[in-house]
Amino acid sequence: MSDRQSPSGRRRRVRSVWPSMVPLAVVWCLLWGEFSLFNILAGALVGAVVVIAFPMPPLHLHLRPRPMALAVLVGKFVVDVVVSSVRVAWTTLRPGASSLTNAIVRVELATPSDFVLTVVAQMTSLIPGSIVVDVHRARHTLYLHLLDVNSAEEADEFRKRVLEQEERVVAAIGGYAHDIDERSDRPVREGGTER
Q1: For the chain, what is the domain count?
Q2: 119 and 181 assigned to the same domain
Q3: CA 4: distance to chain centroid?
Q4: Domain for residue 2, yes or no?
Q5: Which residue range is the domain that position 33 belongs to?
Q6: Of 107, 168, 154, 158, nearest to 128 (Cα)?
Q7: First CA to last CA distance, the chain
Q8: 107 burial class (0-12, 13-18, 19+ CB within 10 angstroms)?
Q9: Which segments cross the bilayer (predicted)?
């Protein structure tokens, strides 16, 4: 008998329904535009049916927030946003801005965590001048559109910055237990080489 079919597995599933029902009930009421008792109960019922009928796979996250590394991550992100905003403004306003050369750059992340992939993709897209246009989940690869890239060296420099961002994310909040090399607190790269 699998864990999901055992009595304790069913109890865990029923307990996991409650945290999901509350936000789904709120969304239901917002869609109807009224927080009445009937709408709250109907939203909770619909939420329970959705969560039980379409269970999400369990996430095996081993998040270990580190305040100092988190401060570095946020600080560096704010600096990147400000610097990139100024750079994009200058790029679009300078003479000859109509002849910009843009690029699609592939970045293969080092960690196998979908959580880290998502966080890095979101943070990278929030930096002006770059946006994630595609994600290859099986290979943990991001495809980014970059503004004003004039050489392979500039593309490589941006790729390096994304990988450094990934390392800061893993150092700040982790992802999976095996994402971090315990001796160095750096992401583990397959084969021991950087791509």
Answers
A1: 2
A2: yes
A3: 28
A4: no
A5: 7-53
A6: 158
A7: 43
A8: buried
A9: 21-54, 69-90
| Sign of the CA dihedral running 61, 77, 128, 146 | negative
Q: Residue 93 carries which side chain, given as an amino acid letter?
A: L
Tell which wins on pLDDT, 139 or 194.
139
pLDDT per position as a tens digit, 93-132: 877 666 778 888 999 998 888 888 889 999 998 888 888 9
3-state secondary structure of 181: strand
Domain co-membership, 117 together with 88 = yes
Return the pLDDT at 168: 92
Query: 3-class SS at 12?
Result: helix
Measured distance CA(162)–CA(113) in Å, rounded: 15
Beta-bridge partner residues of 63: 174
CA distances from 32 to 25, 48, 106 (A): 11, 18, 43
* Spatial CB neighbours of 42, under 8 Å, sequence gap ≥ 6: 28
Same domain membership, residue 133 and residue 171: yes
73 and 38 co-located in one domain: no
Residue 1: inside a domain, yes or no? no
Half-sphere exposure of 192 (CA within 13 A, CB side): 0
Q: How far is residue 43 from each of residues 34, 49, 52, 107, measured CA to CA in Å?
A: 11, 10, 14, 41
d(Cα 24, Cα 22) in Å, to the nearest integer?
5
Q: Which residues contact 156 (CB under 8 A, 6 or more apart)?
A: none
39 with 85, same domain: the answer is no
Tokens found for residue 191: 């084969």
